[in-house]
Amino acid sequence: MSFNWIGLVFWLLIGVSLFILAWGIRRKSSKAFVLSGIALVLPSLYFIGAENWLRFVAFLPIICFYLAYSIRKSAK
User: Fold this and answer.
1) Which residues, at least 6 apart from 38, have a Cβ–Cβ distance to it below 8 Å?
2) pLDDT digits (tens, 9 = 90+) for 32-44
3) Domain assignment of residue 47, yes or no
4) Which of 8, 70, 73, 76 is nearest to 37 (CA)?
5) Is residue 75 over pLDDT 90?
6) Which secondary structure element, helix H or strand E, spans residue 64, and what is its range?
7) In a domain, 20, yes or no
8) Into how many domains does the chain fold?
9) Is residue 4 assigned to a domain?
10) 20 Cβ neighbours under 8 A, 6+ residues apart
11) Is the pTM of this model over 0.70?
12) What pLDDT does residue 54 have?
């Protein structure tokens, strides 16, 4: 049985993204939302090819980027 490195990277990116997203919500930091979106882009690209409702998971980075935009716009 071999170790699956791609799966490890996939789940680490999801975990890091959720952690940074929670930190960004707590601190209301637009930089944290952008980092969360960037970390979530690669795992979400995997779900674009899905044939069912999982295809909508690919839109999660867009939500992070929109939150960063709205925080940045409200700070000005």
Assistant:
1) 61
2) 999 999 999 988 9
3) yes
4) 70
5) no
6) helix 60-75
7) yes
8) 1
9) no
10) 32, 35, 36, 39
11) yes
12) 84
